[in-house]
Amino acid sequence: MYLTPDEEKLYDGEMGWAYQVAMRILVKLGDLYGADRLIPVGSAHISGVSYKTIGDAAIDFLNELVKGDGRVRASSTMNPSSFDPDHVMEMGIPDEVKEKQSLIIKLYEMMGIKPVLTCTPYYIERPKAGSHLAWAESSAVIYANSILGAWTNREGGPSALASALIGKTPNHGIHKAENRQPTVEVKVEAELGDMAEYGALGIYMGRILGEDIPLFSGLQDPEEDELKQLGAALASSGMTPIFHYNQRGKTVKELERVKVEQRDIEKTMEELSASMDRPDLVFIGCPHCSLKELETVARMVKGRKVRDDVKLWVCTSRYIRSKAEKYVGMIEASGGRVICDTCAVVTWLRDMGVESLMTNSAKTAYYAPTLNRVEASLAPLRKCIEAACRG
Ligand code: F3S
Description:
Strand 2 (43-46), helix 3 and strand 3 form a beta-alpha-beta unit. This protein folds into three domains: 5-177, Aconitase, domain 3; 181-271, no CATH class; 281-390, Aconitase, domain 3. It starts with a helix and ends with a helix. Strands 13-12-11-14-15 form a five-stranded parallel sheet, with helices on both faces. A four-stranded parallel sheet has the order 3-2-4-5, sandwiched between helices. The chain is α/β, with parallel strands linked by helices. Helix content is 40%, strand content 18%. The longest helix is centred in the N-terminal third of the chain and has 17 residues, at 17-33. The protein binds FE3-S4 cluster (F3S). FE3-S4 cluster (F3S) binds at residues 79-80, 119, 139, 232, 286-288, 315, 343, 345-346, 363.
């Protein structure tokens, strides 16, 4: 991969250890994937923030980067952490974990990374169509590429951090127009009635597609929140970083075609739904809720009470929460909690006594049984709220 004289200096360690490590990561990846050069990025989004997922070894590495004067050169944001400091008692987080989590966030902040602690950084600052990014967090990557028209590979935590420090990313994969084209048409013949069903479509197709890039045809005026669920799920069971979509009735150029029927969606919903009398937790907000989703939940719980034996968590970013005081008030008046900075998947549910959850997120229903060791059930939002509320 070609390096400019300034990049050579970074690579050789003339600007310090932190930049040298970052350059070594980027060059290794660039060479591996056949990149010709590094290209500037408009922003980086860093995963690997939750202490639950990264543990102690990562803290030592971050410490070294800070000591080595690592400071980001691209606008950068952080993914969720392992708890919400406003609900720390309820979440039963031990002091030692609190300290370690706070240290991780502080170290990233010392490098200049904004502690937005959300997987939906695009609600805070929407990247421009056509801008190159270096984002980790698969749900944000697929949203950026498919819905916002930005260009980012599916970075891991270390490569996104390296790009943040250097302000550049290797030019390969989805940064090239020819690699963004659809390779298969997915003709959706099913009626998708709810975000959970968009998610089920994502899980179903992710398993089939592998790295193929789908063009979904036949979707019925999907909303951004529905496409968010589709993308998050597609990127969970599969590896694609981008999808395309077409409205019903539009013609599609010749591509290999896969059909999705109602029974495929129903079967996937069933597979992701463990049978349970009543969940310990109803979790809405994977990926973190938009303002509109908060409003919808607020209207559904208005005047109702959450059952004593069920927790209702609605997860969002602190930024969206600050724009939605009225809806937060309605949800909390019902006994639900609007949780920020974290989510059910990246915290310790079992330690909170949660053994089963119901969610409208196919991504959570897909991961929670293995990552959290809880039973999970995927259900439409209305059914989730019914399970959470009395009467
Ligand atoms: Fe976000 Fe947690 Fe889901 S980080 S995408 S809410 S698993």
